[in-house]
Amino acid sequence: AGDIMDYGFSRVVLACGASWVASLLDPRGIPLPHADVLTPDDVFAGAALVDPVVVFDYEHYVMGSCLAEMLAAKGHRVTFVTPGDEVGGWSRNTHDQWYAQKRLIELKVRILTGHYLSALSEGEARLLCKYSGQESALEAGSVISVGARRGKDEIYRTLMADPDLLAAKGVRSLQKIGDCDVPGAVVHAVYAGHRLAQDFDAAPDGALPFKLEETRLGL
Questions:
Q1: Helix residue ranges, H only, the chain
Q2: What is the mean pLDDT of residues 208-214?
Q3: Overall average pLDDT of the 161-166 stretch
Q4: CA-CA distance, 148 to 32, in Å (whole number)?
Q5: pLDDT tens sequence across 108-145
Q6: Considering just the CA atoms, what is the radius of gyration of the chain in Å?
Q7: Is residue 103 within 8 Å of residue 80, measured between CB atoms?
Q8: pTM, to two decimals
Q9: Which is nearest to 64 in space by CA: 185, 145, 150?
């Protein structure tokens, strides 16, 4: 934030991405923080994993299945748990779902659909069937949660906290885009960047530098 102020940019756009949140999903669809679960960020940072590894996916896109595939290929015993009715249900929109589930089956990943993780204890996870409400136990060494993400907007909030200093430094426009604003799929981040480039000459108040003609046809 200090560097941005010192440069004296008149327009500042922040696209700092997002980080995964260590949380589980309750039956109401609300992510609840849980300190005993790992995130994809932890795995990529080299966190030690204990078998069997449980991947709990409520993002319903590709990250959960990709993590399960990667870990299974490395020799881990993996169980894929999701409240959805299939692996990565949203990835049907990108025609990836069939291939993702097929690959996990080939790697002998255990797949449990239609279940929430209701509780965790040492070496065990409690499952809750979303249809019957019945609970069951699942052996779990490490649990990886793939669901909620939080935008990395700390710099944005720091700058916005002192509007007088922004004005004094000549910053006329400050905005956040992409995952920094609202975490989403890659396509959403690409759209946000493309739209920014298209509207870059717009005034700070959002007015376009050209006029639009609206044609109406009378019937």
A1: 2-7, 40-44, 63-73, 97-106, 154-160, 163-168, 186-198
A2: 71
A3: 93
A4: 9
A5: 999 999 999 999 998 999 999 999 999 999 999 999 99
A6: 22
A7: no
A8: 0.86
A9: 145
